[in-house]
Amino acid sequence: MSIAVAAESASGQKIAAEPPSRKRRSTSGKAAVTGWAMLAPAGILMLVFLIVPIILTLSLAFTDARLISPTPAKFIGLNNFTRLFGSNVFWHSLQNTIVFALVIVPVQSACALGLAVLVNAKVRGTNFFRTVYFLPVVTSMVVVSMLWLFMYQQDGLINALLAKIGIAGPDWLGDPNTALFAIILMSAWQAMGFHMVIWLSGLQTISADLYEAASLDGANGWQQFAHVTWPGLKQTRTFILITITIAAFSLFTQINVMTQGGPLDSTSTLVFLAVRTGFQQQQTGYASAMSLVFFVLVLAVSLVQRYLTRDKDLQR
């Protein structure tokens, strides 16, 4: 009798121990459903605004599709790319894009780093200057472009200041020799505050003990920057280099507001040319071919930068 009761008791304990496992499986299943439900909005947005446009671009690049046309699009093979690579406007726009990137990346990153070093100092008023330097970033690019458009006029603020010291200012946006330089200057000023904040976050991750040790060893300010600050910003400068380069290749708003690609296509860029071709001239297939070439170019530059800035110590 006691043996049967014990067996029954053991069996009862075994049966009572099973429901918690099923409960855990049910809880994990609900957690998975909740996780997918929370992921769904971002996934849908990525699908609609990223994946689908990329697929449409790949398909339209090989057709003669137009934005508004009574005839359906026809497959024309590589004709759009042949026409593109034979266009002087395309090569001029590519040259302007590359020149803009080659100048803006070192200038903007260096100036932003200088500002970050200044505002990182523990002196009175640094919070005020951080706000002032970051203010152009939170201002609409259209508003900033219109402001500088008025400043760049022949009777604008910049030429008025130059006249005070006896210099006759040029027609900044009307002269092919100065138009792209004027766009570069305005763009560097506008985005400098954003990268200043990124540099500043990197500076604040460097331990103060390293500076104290360098100071005890007799290192001056420049030596501390070269041997402590700069190596400590390795990951930060990789991120800034890639983000500035991608933003430089995507130059559009300033051109669209200030110059419309002129004068004589001296400020035309790949993105501006693709938008103008696709929406103003309604040549959707041809513009898709430009966008595809632009995508390959940016991808190649990003991969090269990633390779050159890779952490060699981790690969050993």
Polypeptide structure, described:
With 316 residues, this protein is an all-alpha fold. It folds into 2 domains: 1-50; 79-315, MetI-like fold (Orthogonal Bundle), CATH 1.10.3720. The chain has 13 helices and no strands. α1 (2-60) crosses α13 and α10 packs antiparallel against α13. The longest helix is centred in the N-terminal third of the chain and has 59 residues, at 2-60. The chain is flat. The chain starts with a helix and ends in an 8-residue tail after the last helix. Mean pLDDT is 86; it is low at 1-18.
Structural class: mainly alpha
What assembly state would you assign to the polypeptide chains in this entry?
single chain
Order of helices and strands: HHHHHHHHHHHHH
User: Roughly how many Å is the radius of gyration?
Assistant: 29 Å
Beta fraction of the residues? Answer: under 5%
Mean pLDDT across residues: 86
Topology-level CATH name of the largest domain: MetI-like fold
Approximate helicity band:
over 70%
Strand element count: 0
Low-confidence parts lasting 5 or more residues at pLDDT below 50? 1-18
Q: What number of domains?
A: 2
Q: Biggest sheet, open or closed, and with what strands and sense?
A: none
